[in-house]
Every structure is written in structure tokens, then in C-alpha cells.
Predict the structure.
Amino acid sequence: MAVEAVPPEAVDLREPAGWRRTKNQLMTVLMWAAFVIVLIPLGFVLVTVISKGAGAISWQFLTSSSIPPNVLPLGTGGMGPAVIGTLEITGLAAVIAVPLGVLGAIYINEYGGKGWLAKFIAFMSDVMTGVPSIVMGLFIYTIWVLHFGFSGLAGSFALACLMLPVIIRSSYEMLRLVPDSLREGSYALGATKARVTVTVVLPAAIGGIVSGSLLAIARAAGETAPLIFTILTVESTNSNVFSGPDTALSTQIFANAQSPYVGAQARAWGAALTLIAIAFILMIVARFITARFTRYSR
Amino acid sequence: MSTLKEADPASPAGSADPFKHRRPLGDRGFQIMALAAGLLVLVILVLIVITTAQQSSNWFSTAGFKGIFSTTWDPGANKFGAMAFLYGTVISSVIGLIIAVPISIGVALLLTEVVPRRWGRPIVYVIDLLAVVPSVVWGLWGIILLAPWLQHIYASIASGLNGVPVLGTLFGGPNVEGASFFTAGLILAVMITPIVTSLSREVIATVPVIDREGAYALGATRWEMIRGAVWPHSQGGVVGAILIGLGRAMGETIAVALVIGDSAQITGHLFYTGYSIPAAIALQFGEATGGEFRSALIGLGLFLFVLTILVNLVARGIVERSARRMRGA
Amino acid sequence: MEQQDQEIIAKLAVPEPSVRDEVPKSGNAVFDAKNVSIYYSAFRAVTDVSLTIYENEITAFIGPSGCGKTTVLRTLNRMNDLIPGARVEGGVHYRGAALYSSGVSATAVRRRIGMVFQKPNPFPKSIFDNVAYGPRINGERNKAKLAEIVEQSLRQAALWDEVKDRLNKSALGMSGGQQQRLCIARTLAVEPDVVLMDEPCSALDPIATGKIEDLMQEIKSRYTIVIVTHNMQQATRVSDRTAFYSVLRDETSDVRTGVLVEYDRTEKIFNDPADSRTLAYVTGRMG
């Protein structure tokens, strides 16, 4: 039954002729090369920011009450007002954008159904994610600042406009993943749509929604352009975020980057490291929440 | 919510209550809130157009069509031609795309075809890390470290290419600067790689497994499989991803503002300083006190808005169409 | 785990599969499997399969779900390589050469041993480009030669007359039955030695199924065909030999694995099987 005798022609099962194999290997090498190329600028930037920024950061740096003039070297003052500004303005923006974004996503997914309006809003929301941040800044400038002056609040509005479509999109994706059987079970118990949404659907999707919002907040914290036109970078802490010009890490870095003074640049590096740290922490928390608390994923 | 009417299991079947079709107030209110939140998106978009158009009407009417698209930008002389900024935006974005596209597609293919699932995560983290670095930090690094370093390189390239026909114009010239169109293109490439990579990856991952197996079963190598089975399926989506990257590049403000230099000139020399629309708005807004100046800057913003919206619409249209073709197949 | 496995298998007493291989003996052996076990990571999907596939015959693999027939089929052209964690123990020989020794190229194997899948999977290209894909990657660039190969392959697949006027149209615009015949043409275009078919008609209507079964009879003189099928009438209609697989289950640990129960000429399997399990399966379905 088994033929162990040598078959008439030896079956050659080795690799196909040179060129095909080489081409395949070459392409694989190129793909890896692409990744390495990505690592290069990332590595450079991170190493630079960490090394130059670490030299500038200190408790005083982060909590000082005023930002010294560019001429002064490192040592006096720090970026305290900017840190507070970033946290306040971004925080306020989040308070505005997250509930609105989630509600919008709820409309699209739960109430909109197959209607044209929901699809249109979803589509326009996606398109809106592509609107440049500077345009949002100009928009808030014309619609708010011209009437009510510069303030941290205006900055928050601009950031919120940036965050809104992103949060709508990510929340909508999360809501979509919640299986209908959950909703049906709740309806069968006699709950109204609002109750179903708030008590069953939202909690089921909350992990993904929160992490998506955190990522949007991380992106907003680093934004500069929308703030240029709305907060008017100043040097001291403004305790009232609702009125009067304010400052933030991003705008400070922008201003200092254009200055020839070493001290100002050093402070800029310190601020950059702080900003990256904030964004990075938010990103890690978001990943953690995705890993632990997301019940339904793709 | 006390106004919610709960279906009472104790109420007799014939009771009139459950058959009343009036929805409880709270439920209705919630729906209205959700609808309002959704409509907010449309409202904002419309308001952006209206307010910026209003503010830039001064510029439009004063400069007229020819004035708007002229190549002279001289606030001192009340000349506000936007051509140089448009040029700079397009050139730097195109340079950024040319560099970013092969890299992004390469990484996307690496993640979907080459690297086993578990080991792909570190690569994805690296891409995410790239995306989380704020634009202003790229700009800071760009202007303080990258640009001066590149200046030397540009200078040697330029002197080497002196007199060479095409390349000499592109990469030559006596006034090469570290802060230039090309540098801006480089930074843009780095910044749009994450989005193009992740969108391409999503598209490529939807290629059905049996299509890949079909190619392998014919004795294809991995690269041949990619060209035969993966690429035809995903080319539409990848093109869409590239266009979305283009939109991002055109709208990128701060990093470009810091490294593109600040001369409003139209030149073929890529190593010369230039300008872009968002950079102009950002850098000159502080000085713009006069009516037409400010109006012109806001008008530039309107241009940018329309431009990026158009690119985004086309991109999404292409992605939709190719997704529909695949689903219908 | 190994220990346990062996105990369970010993207890279950896998008998030598009944192979009554009387005259007439067919030609050369194409595949020779000896004590093949296939694992997906720690899970042993198939245990101790030994059989020989003969040249220019149609061999059918039948059996209930989960019995491993598709797994064994995919082992014959190294398609299981694509599944992480899959591994093969035992000897699989193709015309005397070991399929799983190091130094053997999977791409070379698959050029000789083609496969048609359960769900038709034409590339989103034109009909011509689909069939020409195989020859092209093997280096054929001459347009005239390619056209000739495409026509021949489509004729063999009984598809030429239906599509000869629209070779440039997308393959996705055809009916399911036509798409499957296209996939067969595509496979034949690289001039393989063996064609493996994994339930090729399960997604098709009876008429399309009939066309493909006729096709198989036509081409069997030039190729060796192994087909996995759920449809026993199909096995009786087209195959020369049939291998019946089943699931072996240990009652206490609930460990399941696929085994080869009986392998013989098709008439014997369906009319006078040696094993009672075979009898139960073939009568249960036909009854």
C-alpha cells in the first residue's frame, strides 16, 4: 500500500525560484523599515523632551504663581499658572463636551433609527472631526470673544467644539456594540426608552465611552491653536476661569518656542514634558479602562 | 424621575392606563435633549460658515476676487493676497503625504499581515504614542533642534545640486533654511502617520480570510497574496485614509507655524522659507488690528475650512463607495 | 496531558481502520499518511490517521461535524500552517517526499496541490485576471500564452462558453455556481497535480452542484481529487474511494478527537461496510 520505492521523478518541494522569494523577503524588510522609520522621530522627541524638560521641572516649576519674562533664566518662577490653566480649561471643556457628545451619540444610535437625520448627523459629525482646530478658535473668537472678551471659558468652548465630534463618534461606536437583547429585556419589563438607555445601555457601554472621552481630552489638552484666539496668553494665574485672559501650557510653549532666550526655551521644555506627561497619563488610564471595564468590544 | 409612568404589573389587564399612548414627560424630555445635542453639530458647522463669512466680507469686498488670489501679502500696504499661503499649505501637505503614505501603509501591512496578533500590540502602542505628542511639542522640537540640524544638510545638498536642471530648482538655491517647506513637510509626515496607519489598518483588516486563503492555496508568497487578494479589496479605503491624512495635514497649524519660516513667497525651492494658511493666521493674528487685516485673516480661516471640509467629504465618499462595493459583492 | 491522552486513546481502542484493499489496485500512491495526529495548540483535533490516496481517483472524506475531515484535508497542502499553534505529528508523504520536513516550501507544495473552498472566493478582479493570477505569479508574462492558459482552464471548468465574451468583467458579478467554477478554473490554471475540495457545493443549488460533479468526473483522468463532503449521495455519485471519519469521545473526561474509522472503495463503504459505526452513519443519513 505504501510506496516507499523511489518514485520515477524526484519531487522537488524546495523554495520557488530566486526572484519571487527575494521579492517577498524584500517587501517584509521594507515593512519593518517603515516601522523603524516611525521610531526615529518619536525616539528623538521623547528623549529630548525628557532630558531637557527634566532639568527644568521641579515642584516650584509646577506650582509657581507667575511666569517670568522670557529674558530670565531658569530658576525663578515656573509654569504654575500654565499648568493650572491647562487643567482648568481642559477640565471645563470636558464637562461641556462629554455629556453633549454622549447625548448626541445616544440620539444617533437609540432614537435616530434608520432615519435620514441620524445618518446625516453621524456623517456630519465625522466630517467635523476634520475641521482644523484653528478654525474652531476663530469661530469662538468671532462668536464669543468679540462680545465677551478673552477668557478661559472661551478657550473651553473652543476645545469643546473640537472634542464634541470625536466623543460622539467613539460613544456611538460603543453604544452600537451593546446587544439588542439587553434593550429588549429592559423593555419587556416595562421601561421607557429613556430609562432603558440610561439604566441599561449606558452602563453596558460606559467603559468604552469613558476611555474614548479620555483620549479626546488628552488630545484637547495639547491643543494650542484654538486657545490663541480665545485666552490670550498671560503670565499670572487667573483664578477666575470665566473671565479675563488666561494661560495654558500649550500656548506658553508656543510663545516661548519663538523666543531666542535660553531661559524661555528651557521653560518651554519643562512645560512640554508636563504636557506630554498629562496626555500620556490620560492615555494610560484610557487603555486601562478599555482593558478592564469594557464589556463589549469588536 | 417621578413623571415616568412605570408599567404596573398589578394593574388589571383591562385598565385604561397602559393603553394611553401619551409618552411620559421624562421620556420625551430626554429624547429632545438627545436630539438637541445631535443637532448641535449641524448648528456649529453652519454657524462657523456664517460668522466667518460675515467677518471676512470686508476683505472679500475690498480686495475683490483678483485681490484675494494675488500673490502679494503686505499688510503695511494693505495688500492681502492669499496665493502664497495656499501654495505653502498645498506644498507642505503634499510633501508630508509623499513621505507618510508609504510608511503608514507599510506599518499597517506589518500589523495585519506579518506580525502575529499578540506581538502587534507594542507596535500599536508606538503609533498611539506618536499620536499623543501634542502638535506644539513637535513644533518646539522642530524649530529648536531639527531645523538648525537640517540647515546644514540642506546647505550641502543645495551646493551639490548647483546647476542641475530639475533637482537644482527643487533642492538647490542659495537661501536654504532649516525652517522651510520641506521641514514642515517632514513634521507633517510624522504627525499624520498615526491616523493614516490606523484607518488603513481598519480597512485592510476587513478583507475576508477566505480571500487570503484562496491566494495562498494557489501557491502565492505573502507579498503576492497581498497584491492579489488584499489590495483590490482595500484600495478604496486606503485612498480614503490618505485623503483624510491630507485634510489633517492642511489644517495643521502650530507645528507648521513654528518650522515653516515666515515668508509669504511662492517658490519652487523646497528648502526655502514659506508660509501656510493656518500658520499665517496663527502668527499674524496678534498684529492684526486693522479692519481689513483681521478680516483677511478670518477669510483665510474660511478658505481653510471649506478646503478641509471638501477633502474630508471626498475622502468619506470614496471610503463609503468602496465599502458598499465590497458588501454588495 | 500527554500521559492522559495516551491513556484515553488506549482505552478507546482505536482499531486499525478497516481497509480492505483488494484488486483492482489503482495506480501510484499520491499521498501516504502514516499515524498522523494534528494538534491546534494543546487540543488534539485528529488522532492517528493512516491512509493512502491514489492517483487519478476521486477520494471522498465523509463524517459528522467535528470529525476532523477538513483538518486532514488542509494538512495535505499545508494550509494549516496559516493557523497559529497548528502542528502535525506523524508522516505525510506526497509522492515519496515528506511534506513536513524542514526545507520544504509551503508555496511550492500549494502550487502542486491546489484547493477549492467551501464558499467561492474569487478575487475582486476581472474573470481573466482571476484565472491568470496563478500563472502570473509563477512568472508567465507572455500575453498570448496567458490567454491560452485562461481559455484552457475555463474550458476544463465548463465555464468558457458562459464567460468567453466577458472576460474583463468583474468576477463578483457571477452567480455562486459560476464563481465556484471560476475558483476551480483558477486552481487548474497552475496545472496542479492534486485538487483538494472542501465541501465545494455546500453553498450552491442542486443544478450548480450537478455541473461541478460532472466537471469532477471529466477532469479526474488528469488530476487526483480529494473531496470533503457532508452529502453522502454526492460521495456515492462521484467518488471511487471513501474515507469515513468520526468523533471519538472519552466519557469521563469528555476529550474528543477525530479518527479515521474506515477507508475503502465507495461501493463497499456504502453497501457493505466493515465497521458498525460506518453502517450507522451511512444508513442513518440515507434512511
Residues 1-9 of chain A have pLDDT under 50 and may be disordered. Residues 10 and 30 of chain A are 36 Å apart (CA to CA). Chain A touches chain B through 90 residues (CB under 8 Å). Residues 76-293 of chain A form a domain with the MetI-like fold fold (CATH 1.10.3720.10).
